[in-house]
Write a structure and sequence with these properties.
It is found in: Golgi apparatus membrane. The protein is built from 10 helices and 5 strands; from the N terminus they run H-H-E-E-H-E-H-H-E-E-H-H-H-H-H. By secondary structure, it is mainly α.
């Protein structure tokens, strides 16, 4: 049966960037989500995919606004929903604002999870919480794609290969923003290789990547670096407005 993900060679990620983040965030047995700000990190990853596919670009001549290059459907439900939103917005907006807007798409995490269900990587279940509420959980049934992406992330940081996979670099940057690197590396590894992780996360180790994707990668990495500050500001604004409304 043909899945919505195409066949990849052995070194490429077997899932899309935003699917990889959801896989890392999902607890393998419990099927519940770990990490921080997953919706916004997933949003940044969807935009990274579209940037690297040359479907959208950041226009430096127009205040770094995100613009659509090709609005034709990709065949991926999540990416097509995002692409349609960007294409139909009357005024272009910045990458940062799009991350916030896409992060607020209802049930974004679940939409991504359902794609992974279709591909047979996880399964969808409902469990009772406090005997009253039901919660959708997604236990893993095919561990190979996640095992492979963890292997590639570890290889990038620990083995320091000369040739860097752009998607793996972005995945490390986004996983760092979502506090998911602890799912891939031990505390000692994170401490020992902090400088390497920081350089990758800031897009400083992308010299070997072909020039046509460098701008897209750096735009995506820029969002990854900004995410924690953006989320902190959003959280502060939310708590401030809720406290003033009491």
């Amino acid at each position: 049966m043909q899945t919505h993900n195409q066949t990849h060679n052995s070194n490429q990620l077997q899932v899309k960037l935003y699917e990889a983040l959801v896989l890392l965030a999902l607890h393998d047995e419990k099927g519940t989500t770990e990490g921080w700000y997953i919706e916004y990190t997933v949003a940044a990853a969807v935009l990274a995919e579209l940037l690297m596919m040359n479907r959208v670009k950041v226009n430096a001549d127009n205040k770094n606004k995100l613009e659509v290059i090709d609005a034709a459907p990709t065949g991926d439900l999540v990416m097509d929903e995002v692409l349609h939103k960007i294409a139909t917005k009357k005024r272009p907006d910045t990458l940062k604002n799009w991350v916030m807007a896409i992060g607020h798409i209802p049930k974004l995490k679940h939409k991504v999870a359902e794609q992974l269900v279709v591909d047979g990587i996880i399964k969808s279940e409902e469990k009772k919480v406090l005997w009253v509420f039901t919660q959708k959980v997604y236990p893993e049934v095919n561990p190979e794609p996640e095992r492979h992406l963890r292997h590639e992330m570890r290889r990038l940081i620990l083995d320091k290969p000369l040739e860097i996979d752009a998607k793996v670099a972005i995945l490390v940057a986004l996983a760092k923003s979502a506090y998911l690197l602890k799912e891939v590396f031990s505390k000692d590894e994170l401490k020992t290789h902090k400088e390497r992780i920081d350089k990758i996360a800031k897009g400083e180790e992308l010299g070997q990547i072909t020039s046509e994707v460098v701008d897209a990668v750096q735009a995506a990495v820029m969002v990854a670096v900004m995410l924690p500050a953006m989320m902190a500001a959003t959280t502060a604004a939310t708590s401030s407005s809720s406290s003033s409304g009491c």
